[in-house]
Specification:
The protein has 270 residues and is an all-alpha fold. It contains eight helices and no strands. This is Phosphatase PAP2 family protein.
């Protein structure tokens, strides 16, 4: 009986005797779909972290979907809410923090040049802070944002809606006056929300090349801080009135901050 010899495989492994690959079998050293070898089993699936499906970041680099904040907001907002609640409780109950606050305030009132402290106090007034926010809203509308200016307007409207009832409920007497309803500071809260919302809007839309990304939040913080310092030094508010509004501002701005993070900023001047 004549024996039939099987042809041998060549060195390159392409001979006719090469056994076919089983469908569905994974090969650890295959070159994949883009190579010349055998396809991986998972080549037909989308990758776990597809770079093409990611939303590009502000500078055009691959990002994530949805955007991931730089740090958990709760780590910032939680202590602010707790501090605001503590101050409000002390003011309502006339606690020891209030007596300490009055002693500190008496040493700070009428310090510094009166025209300067008056100017700083006016930064939190509606005639000054509100036009700044209106200009930022108009610019955001012009750059194509539609919902963010509405959210900013609602955030600004939340200031009197929250501050006025607290003033009436606590009925704290102001410094250097017999009048009441001074807690918390409405001027400080107005400055924090107006300037903070303006900064968030400008960060969420394309900006001129000269307007750097760090400039708007720094300006908002400085203007809000200057307003509070001027109010205390001029004798318009107790320090705790201002501190409480400094805590309240970021809490009110948090929904707008989240909405701006959800948008797709394209900054021209990064």
């Amino acid at each position: 009986m004549r024996e039939t010899h099987r042809p041998r495989e060549t060195a390159g492994g392409s001979g006719p005797g090469r056994s076919p690959h089983r469908p569905g079998r994974a090969f650890g050293h295959g070159t994949g779909a883009s190579g010349s070898g055998t396809s991986h089993r998972s080549d037909g699936r989308p990758p776990h972290t597809p770079r093409g499906a990611r939303r590009p970041g502000p500078a055009g680099h691959p990002g994530t979907t949805p955007p991931v904040p730089g740090w958990p907001a709760s780590l910032v907002l939680g202590p602010l809410v707790a501090l605001f609640a503590l101050i409000t409780w002390q003011v309502a109950a006339d606690g020891p923090l209030v007596r300490l606050d009055e002693r500190v305030g008496e040493h700070l009132f009428e310090r510094g040049p009166a025209p300067l402290t008056q100017l700083l106090s006016d930064l939190g007034g509606v005639p000054v802070a509100l036009p700044v926010l209106v200009c930022a809203m108009a610019y955001a509308l012009w750059r194509g944002a539609r919902r963010l200016p509405v959210y900013a307007a609602l955030t600004m409207a939340a200031v009197p809606a929250l501050v006025i009832p607290l003033k009436v409920a606590t009925a704290r007497q102001g410094p250097l006056t017999e009048a009441v309803n001074y807690y918390p500071s409405g001027h400080t809260a107005t400055a924090a929300v107006a300037y903070g919302a303006s900064a968030l809007l400008l960060l969420a839309v394309p900006r001129p090349a000269w307007l750097r990304a760090w400039l708007t939040p720094v300006a908002a913080v400085l203007l809000t801080a200057a307003t509070g310092v001027g109010l205390v030094l001029h004798g318009y508010h107790w320090p705790l009135d201002v501190l409480a509004s400094w805590c309240l501002g970021p809490v009110l701005l948090a929904p707008l901050w989240w909405a701006c993070r959800r948008s797709s900023p394209v900054a021209a001047g990064r």
